[in-house]
Amino acid sequence: MISERVMFKTVRCCLFSTLLFASAYPAIAQLRISENQRYFLDGEKPVVLFGSGLWTIIPDTTVDIEDHNSWYAEWGSNANRVTAFAFCTAVPEGKGLAPWPRTGPDNANDGYPRFDLSQFNEAYWERFHAYLESAQRHGIYVWLQIFDEPFIEPGDERWFINPFNAENNINHIPGMPGGRGSGEEAFYDPDNAALMEIQNALVQRILEETAQRYGHIVYEIGNEINADSRTSKALEWQRHWIQFFRNYEQEHGVKLILSNNTRRSLAEADIDGFDVMNHNAFLEIRVRGRDPLTLSQNITQQLSDDFELFQMPIVNSRPASDPDRVNYPDIVSPDEGRCLYWSYFMSGGHIVGFRTTIESWKGGLAAETILRNLHRFIEKLSFEHMQPTQERVVGDALCLAQPDVAYALYLPVGGSVHLNLSDGEKALTLHWYNPRTGEWQEPVRTDGITQELTLNAPDTQDWAVYIEVSTSS
């Protein structure tokens, strides 16, 4: 099954690489999946995604886009997960932007004019482009989330203020409830023609604005789709969007990267429909309160199992990956966050966390410190040629390896581990790295190693080491 799917994806990529299309924009390098299916390529540059920026930066006009992106990039972060419009109506003083204008008549539940979902708000699209252009200038890849399940869940700050709530628009969409209850069952309904006309128009506009103009986007049709709910048509709704994206690709001769964000059963039902697998909605690992060794072991095992199943890049976008948040029940400590980020990278994965409030942006620097220090380590590696290789390690460490060329290890509790090398006498150069401070120690050269190398970390805290291999003369 996997080999057929990989073959299908390879043929599809080759097909799109041969298509030509007319565009009003200059040719751009499109982000694409690397040959080993774990990472990305921007032109010929290998890319691993990591970051934790402000999620609501597009709809929240109280945030200065350039200020955020320049600050964010200074820390070495290269990816941000952003929502297209979730919680746009929760921005204070009516300063949130939605893709649709607030025309009235009458007011919505937040006290401002109702939306007209049959037309677009051009002020929104100007800010939409301002963000994408700024992100591209600063080397930030955008994980663009279009719809959002929490925004349609019950509650005063959720469905009650959603533009699709019947009390918040003038469009009289059949079957859409008002009030403070849930909009989930009604929203995931591909058979509701009036509803889908509006949803289709939004996604079509997003693709028209982005697909041939930017090359740094991963598209996510929705956040946590049916993660907590069990709505009757979620699978059909998901398949509608997979086909929608693939039809757009065929019609316009472009290759888009589409991610899931659903509960596991929906993800597995449509494996072939996605290009990237997002762990967010079905991450089976508890982070908070977990000791570093157990956490790192759990992560590498789950990524190993899921990569074998999915054969595509795996990204964690859970908000709990942000140790600076103050409003989330499973928020992690800086130590837990560091172990989480490093374990994902060392297991061949990516993390694109996010902040949901302005207060958590610049409210703490724990996430930025983790990302900066991880970025410094990644810069040393030709990670695109390396694979998770746990079978070479005896002891408590995660390992990325390109045998006979280079090894990278993360020791979550320091101590001593053994690394099994390939046959043949080796000369090794060891570069110990402190992930807490971002400092490299002086390189140490070791000659005459044949098959096994014993590594002793400086102490019992977490450490990383990069090992260069050269054959002895």
Structural class: alpha/beta
**CATH class category name of the largest domain:** Alpha Beta
Shape: elongated
What value does the average pLDDT take? 89
Largest sheet: 7 strands, antiparallel
- Please count the helical segments: 10
The count of DSSP E runs of length 2 or more, i.e. the number of strands, is 23
Could you please say which CATH topology of the largest domain applies here? TIM Barrel
| Fraction of residues in H or I helices | 25-40%
Strand content: 15-25%
Rg, Cα atoms, Å: 23 Å
Number of domains: 2
What ranges have pLDDT less than 50 throughout 5 or more consecutive residues? 1-27
From the 3D coordinates, which CATH architecture of the largest domain would you assign? Alpha-Beta Barrel
Please give a structural write-up.
By secondary structure, the chain is an alpha/beta fold. It folds into two domains: 2-379, Glycosidases (TIM Barrel), CATH 3.20.20; 387-471, Hypothetical Protein Tm1070, Chain: A (Sandwich). Helix content is 28%, strand content 23%. It has ten helices and 23 strands. The chain has helices at residues 2-17, 65-74, 122-137, 184-187, 193-210, 234-252, 264-269, 292-310, 334-346, 366-378; strands at 31-33, 40-42, 45-47, 50-54, 79-83, 102-107, 113-115, 141-148, 217-223, 258-259, 277-278, 314-316, 350-355, 387-388, 393-394, 398-402, 406-411, 416-420, 426-434, 439-440, 444-449, 452-456, 463-471. The strands form six sheets. Strands 14, 16, 17, 19, 20, 21 and 23 form a seven-stranded antiparallel β-sheet that branches. The longest helix has 19 residues, at 234-252. It starts with a helix and ends with a strand. Residues 1-27 have low confidence and may be disordered.
